[in-house]
Design a protein that fits this description.
TATA-Binding Protein; 19 strands; Alpha-D-Glucose-1,6-Bisphosphate, Chain A, domain 3; 42% helix; magnesium ion binding; 5-stranded mixed beta sheet; binds 1,6-di-O-phosphono-alpha-D-glucopyranose; AMG1_III; single chain; 540 residues; alpha/beta
Length: 540
């Protein structure tokens, strides 16, 4: 390691004095103008991780759902999954080292992680469409090259596409070809095969309106349109030609405000969906004939997908285990429906795809979705082998079901949640089952709920346990929440510090929207008073 060169180059990516950042729910996120040093250092770290794992590592420059002037970075591990927790600690340490300590921190990390410095390193980089992303990705490249790493810059990609590239490269192409054409080809082939029965049966062309959050999803979905079969027509809105990224649009806006995005005209009962800023989340919705807005979030997506998987397994006669993983944000009705009606085991983890992904790996078929629309399905190696074998061997109805399941394996991006891939899975299921969006929505009724954000001086004063459903600190806050929850029927509430924004998140559900709103407000006030609220007090 040429530490002198590192120190010299680092001077042009100097860390602002005293700035401390944490590797949060999905990497580092803050205002873009505070991130240059972090990008350079994550280039350095990616090289070390690549040497240590003898694999290609990914670096994605994005702040996903955050406002346009934020940015962020996350590292992608060898199989396309999120960075291992022990390396998140290394990342935080490296990002926060003062200039004069940087070389020492690099050496310490290399020693602790037993990195063979003579090993070659290869890093793949991509970025979203934020104005700040191009420059920041150049800083990543600077970090990679100063440590002698090789790299490939994919330029503009969705986050899940970069995860896919990493997985392809580290599996010798078995997962797919590590090019954008390879990605489009893999997904569109699986989609066409899976849905051919529905689309060939003479049905009308199906139209889906997609709000692309004015982000990278618009570019990539437009490129993909030519690969899609005739039966599905996607119409793009908020494609970035005029509006601002995530501004009054995108999956996060639609989910948290429970209203349609601006820039997308909805006729009654039309099927619509929203991607988030880097296209790793998807949310569906429609307006009924009376003008009421209906949101179909990650919980209902998980339900649709797991019931389809169970039906196929039943048809084949295979008793592979199906489990569903959710977070505390999952609507109480969804958990009840999955457990009591569908008889599927349901588990709750902390927020963050890395936690859900890890738990989902325990099943033959692990379905994981956050309510915000971030999720996918994981197939264990044994389950995948079995299904592919059955698809070859079985005939008639069983053989057909096994082949469909094989197509489902290929259509999901098993590296991480992927709005484009999830959209195609959902469109195929709806078409095959002949389900309208209203019928899908009607399978169970969500409990009214509300999500709010509270500004506090230091969000780390709140710590939680029990998959973030109980507050441990500050003392007294959980008791206050319990007292408030007791005032309402069918109620539940929790608070947790966000790992991507400088806020505390509040979630409440109850028997009516009025009560959910009122409970969320009262809990917000308790947070504001007991956890050092700043700025404007929460308003009813
Ligand atoms: C990221 C994570 C998600 C998480 C979301 C919000 O999403 O990947 O797992 O649900 O942040 O996290 P928090 O509540 O901690 O701010 P994205 O789409 O922004 O990358």
């Amino acid at each position: 390691m040429d530490l002198d060169a590192v120190t010299k180059h680092s001077a042009s990516h100097a860390k602002p004095d005293g700035l401390i950042l944490q590797y949060g729910t999905a990497g580092f996120r803050t205002k873009a103008d505070r991130l240059d040093h972090v990008m350079f250092r994550m280039g350095l770290l990616a090289v070390l991780r690549s040497k240590q794992t003898k694999s290609t590592i990914g670096v994605m420059v994005t702040a996903s759902h955050n406002p346009e002037d934020d940015n962020g970075v996350k590292l992608v591990d060898p199989l396309g999954e999120m960075l291992a927790p022990s390396w998140e600690e290394h990342a935080t340490r490296l990002a926060n080292a003062e200039e004069q300590d940087l070389a020492r921190a690099l050496v310490a990390i290399s020693e602790e992680a037993a990195v063979n410095l003579h090993q070659d390193a290869f890093v793949v980089i991509a970025r979203d469409t934020r104005p700040s992303s191009e420059k920041l990705s150049e800083s990543v490249i600077d970090g990679v090259t100063v440590l002698g790493g090789q790299f490939h810059d994919y330029g503009l990609l969705t986050t899940p596409q970069l995860h896919y590239m990493v997985c392809c490269r580290n599996t010798g192409g078995r997962y797919g070809e590590a090019t954008i054409d390879g990605y489009f080809h893999k997904l569109s082939t699986a989609f066409a095969e899976l849905s051919k029965q529905a689309f060939c049966s003479g049905g009308d062309q199906r139209t889906l309106k997609v709000d692309c959050a004015n982000g990278i999803g618009a570019l990539k979905l437009r490129e993909m349109k030519q690969y899609l079969p005739q039966g599905l027509s996607v119409q793009l809105f908020n494609d970035g030609t005029s509006g601002k990224l995530n501004h009054f649009c995108g999956a996060d806006f639609v989910k948290s405000h429970q209203k349609p995005p601006e820039g997308l005209e909805m006729k009654a009962n039309e099927r619509c969906c929203s991607f988030d800023g880097d296209a790793d989340r998807i949310i569906y919705y429609y307006c009924d004939a009376d003008g009421h807005f209906h949101l179909i979030d990650g919980d209902k997506i998980a339900m649709l997908i797991s019931s389809f998987l169970k039906e196929l397994l039943l048809e084949i006669g295979e008793s592979l285990t199906v489990g569903v993983v959710q977070t505390a944000y999952a609507n109480g009705s969804s958990t009840r429906y999955l457990e009591e009606v569908m008889k599927v085991p349901v588990y709750c983890t902390k927020t963050g795809v890395k936690h859900l992904h890890h738990k989902a790996q325990e099943f033959d078929l692990g379905v994981y979705f956050e309510a915000n629309g971030h999720g996918t399905v994981l197939f264990s190696k044994a389950a995948e082998t079995k299904i592919r074998q059955l698809a070859k061997e079985l005939e008639d109805k069983k053989g057909k079901a096994a082949k469909m399941l094989e197509n489902v394996i290929d259509l999901f991006n098993q590296a991480t949640g992927d709005a484009i891939s999830d959209m195609l899975v959902i469109e195929a299921i709806l078409a095959l089952k002949g389900l309208t969006i209203q019928q899908w929505d009607a399978l169970y009724t969500d409990l009214p709920n509300r999500q709010l954000k509270v500004k506090v001086a230091d969000r780390e004063v709140i710590s939680t346990t029990d998959a973030e459903r109980q507050v441990v600190k500050p003392p007294g806050l959980q008791e206050a929440i319990n007292d408030l929850v007791r005032k309402y029927k069918l109620s539940r509430a929790f608070v947790r510090p966000s790992g991507t924004e400088d806020v505390v998140r509040v979630y409440a559900e109850a028997d009516s929207q009025e009560n959910a709103d009122s409970l969320a407000y009262e809990v917000s006030l308790a947070v504001f008073q007991q956890a050092g609220g700043v700025g404007e007090r929460p308003q009813p």
